[in-house]
Structure formats: structure tokens, C-alpha cells
Predict the 3D structure of the following.
Amino acid sequence: MPNLDEPLLEAIDLPAVLHALSDPTRLAVVRQIQVDGERLCGAFEVGVAKSTLSQHLRVLREAGVTRTRCRGNQRWVSLRREDLDRLFPGLLDVVLSAAARSDVPA
């Protein structure tokens, strides 16, 4: 199974990234990847149904926040940290720091 579609670096759009990071569930996913590194799609602890989690993961991927790598029948999700830092220096640090202070679960 090929890797899923994701925007090229130059197509990552700030409004799309901010929208993706504005949802508490998606923010929790990003925080878990930041802490633990690449994770299996089903390994996120976010308290939503699998279908809802899939939708959140799609929004993150299509915004350019995450990368989804397929290996066999497994999907691994990682943070596009370097790409985001190159395009929007400090943005992810500020958002993750604010989320930690706001007690968004990781």
C-alpha cells in the first residue's frame, strides 16, 4: 500500500495548519506524536471512535501537519516537524506549549 496523499512542502498553507491544530482531539494526536514519535494509527489515546479518529488523522495529513506511512496493512503517523518549522518557525512550539498549559491531554 503506498503512502497516502499529503501536500508538498510548498503547498502547506498556514490557515489549513491552524485549522488542523484548532481541534482538541487533533491537538492531542499531535502532542502524542511529539512526545512518543511515530505511532500506529490505532495507538492514539483520544477517546473517540475509530471512524472519528480516521477523520481527524485525514485533516492533519491533508493540512501537512502529519505524514502517514503505510507498511503492510499498518499505517504509521509521524509529525512533519521539520517542514512545519521551516515554513512557520516556532509555530508548533507555541501551540504545543499553550496546549500543555491548557491541560489538553497528550
Remarks:
- The mean pLDDT is 92.
- DSSP finds five helices and three strands in the chain.
